[in-house]
């Protein structure tokens, strides 16, 4: 069963809007959520005061235990190995609690061991299912599940996390959650499409509906990310949205997203572009910018399917460096992508590039003109002509 696009949009928008006027409460809730119950105040006292004298008498190790956990949380961002050691010491002081296991899991993930993280998270959840409910922990849990092949469980965690992303510390973290959720949903859509192709009706029809729903879910996540304030991941969001739209058969919207990205890159240079020589230099710089974006895609970690990196690089290069884009699409189709459910969409884009560009350098002149025009002129411009080489 999947979330329809309207329901998903409501889940994305309404909970966040409800929290808009409660920023202080959200920050306080986030700070309190990561504190284990054994270290929290039992009555109405401020959380910062910690365990009572009676709790300390019953468990003299408790203050040291809570200090180790607090230190480990602080160490996670800079020294994950030290955080793991703090978690181990805390677990030795007071065995049987969930909090040290949560800290062990998060440290293991930061150290590049998602399998160890998944096992520690499982131990924590078996002791206390609510021990993973703060947003930072939920994010790490979802990532560990996704990286160990448990996509269904990971998607369930992301669906619970997305309405709470304003509790995360930075805009980049929020954008990353939406990107990861979108690519995971897109991978699920691809898997459902493969299952649909080998199934007989009515099972095949159910698989097709599941694939469509998962792809709609990915598009909803990416549109939400695009509506938010610009972050370092803004181009990644735009390229991922174009990829999802293209795979959903909406090539016109995918191309519009890419044209908008090219115009954004060139907009600050729009005045200089009125001069022919300056315009040529601006286009060259824009091409370099997009080429750099394509190169940076080799370092991202939000992809659920590794070969999608080639597809995103191809989209980043299509409007400025046709030959390089063609090479990326060919590499995608000659590898695992060519055997996957999105091969027809990729082949259609490759064929369109071959027909329209011929493999040379093709500057984004249309995007430059659009950036130089004012908003009213752009809104009055006629819609783009249909491209016969569109996706399925």
Give the helices and strands as they follow along the chain.
Answer: HHHHHHHHHHHHHHHHHHH
Rg, nearest Å: 24 Å
Strand coverage percent: under 5%
Helix segment count? 19
Low-confidence stretches: 1-33, 42-48, 265-275, 358-392
Provide the structure class: mainly alpha
Shape: elongated
**Helix proportion:** 55-70%
**Distance between the first and last residues' Cα:** 24 Å
Number of strands: 0
InterPro entries: TPR-like_helical_dom_sf
Region (Disordered): 353-392
Keywords: Signal
Organism: Sorangium atrum
Task: Give an account of the 3D structure.
It is a single chain. The chain is mainly alpha-helical and 392 residues long. The protein is built from 19 helices and no strands. Helix 15 (308-317) packs antiparallel against helix 16. The protein starts with a helix and ends in a 12-residue tail after the last helix.
Report a brief summary of the structure.
Residues 1-20 form the signal peptide. With 392 residues, the protein is an all-alpha fold. It has helices at 5-18, 23-33, 53-58, 62-75, 80-93, 98-110, 114-127, 135-147, 151-161, 171-197, 203-227, 234-247, 251-266, 276-296, 308-317, 322-334, 343-356, 365-372, 375-380.
Please name the defining characteristics of this protein.
single chain, disordered C terminus, mainly alpha, 392 residues, elongated, 0% strand
Please render the helix and strand layout as text:
Layout: H1 5-18, H2 23-33, H3 53-58, H4 62-75, H5 80-93, H6 98-110, H7 114-127, H8 135-147, H9 151-161, H10 171-197, H11 203-227, H12 234-247, H13 251-266, H14 276-296, H15 308-317, H16 322-334, H17 343-356, H18 365-372, H19 375-380
